[in-house]
Fold:
Amino acid sequence: MRVVQKFGGSSVADAQSIKRVAERIVATKERGYDVVVVISAMGDTTDELTDLALQVSPNPRPRELDMLLTAGERISAALLAMAINDLGHDARSFTGSQAGVLTTAAHGDARIIDITPGRIVTALEDGDVVIVAGFQGVSQTTKDVTTLGRGASDTTAVALAAALGADHCEIYTDVDGVFTADPRIVKAARRIPEISYEEMLEMAASGAKILHLRCVEYARRENVAVHVRSSFSDKPGTWVKDLKEAPVEQPLISGVAHDRSEAKITVVGVPDQTGKAAAIFNTIAAADINVDMIVQNISHDPDGDGPDPSRTDISFTLPQSSGAKAIEVLGAKKDDIGFTGIVYNDAIGKVSVIGVGMRSHPGVTAKFFAALAAAGINIDMISTSEIRISVVVGADFVDKAVQAAHTAFGLDAEGEAVVYAGTGR
Structure:
């Protein structure tokens, strides 16, 4: 039997936490499992290293930043191996490149291409616990160290589980599983015992921080069952897997997710002509910027109060981190496209309700919007998929909107969810 276990930064925040994690790993080993552990950097180490880099250089080169940031996971991997050794078991730590994690060459956001786990397999055959530094690999083309993006230790773990043919992958965090909403906002959030890949993908894409989006995509593609649990308790957690048959009492809505990391750009006074919208989004795409929601409205005449049917306003949401770049590249195309201005707003948040049950039940949108209206919350933008409805609201109303939707769809539990550490990972 073989299992991959991933522990986040809050689970290994200090020496005592590392020792506690080591005891859990040893207990799994003593139950007869071959154990591979993927580890994150301790606590806020990655943020601290990033801040240090910016103090030294206001614009560090991505290659050198990756060299720096990967040190955090290497430190925690080595310390964890020491703790396991002191408990009487052999443990061996590996960097991402030593573990055979081959990636693209994009520093800061590399993708896993392949895993060649020969050294891991050899160590397991020798009876060792294997510890792999998460979040990192080596470029298949340049041979440089790369990072996979924040939170991507989850992806490392699932990819290793697939490559090693593990029975399942355990993701240890600071809450007792996947909840119907962030328990930091909704105290009455419920733990979800089982959730499909499809619903988990929508929740992750809508801002739920419990699992990295690419981790869920990889798990679905490779059919790896993921067990989300707390490293601070022995509660059963949540299984993310292929649910071939929906539960008998499938809820209408499985969860409410939110995202505070987006901003909105409105391109004002765009000529209402064929190809102008394409020109805007080709410009954005060429800058490698992801767009989420899009809304188009008739512009108002700048010389009067009425609408101007010859022009339109195009609004879209994007990551806040891409806002300055988007404004720059669009500004350079202002004369070519012919729009009159750009309005930027980062005081927004996205709130989403997700559930496969809405496929067969009408009225979900009406109930969601009615709950927001009753709470006095105005909707700015709307986006939907087959199993998700998302709205953009003012940043100050995000918590209230999540709570209102959670209650409206009958998701509130009687007790309070426990958050053991407070970082969300």
Observations:
- The chain has a mean pLDDT of 91.
- The chain has twelve helices and 20 strands.
- Residues 62-86 form the longest helix (25 residues).
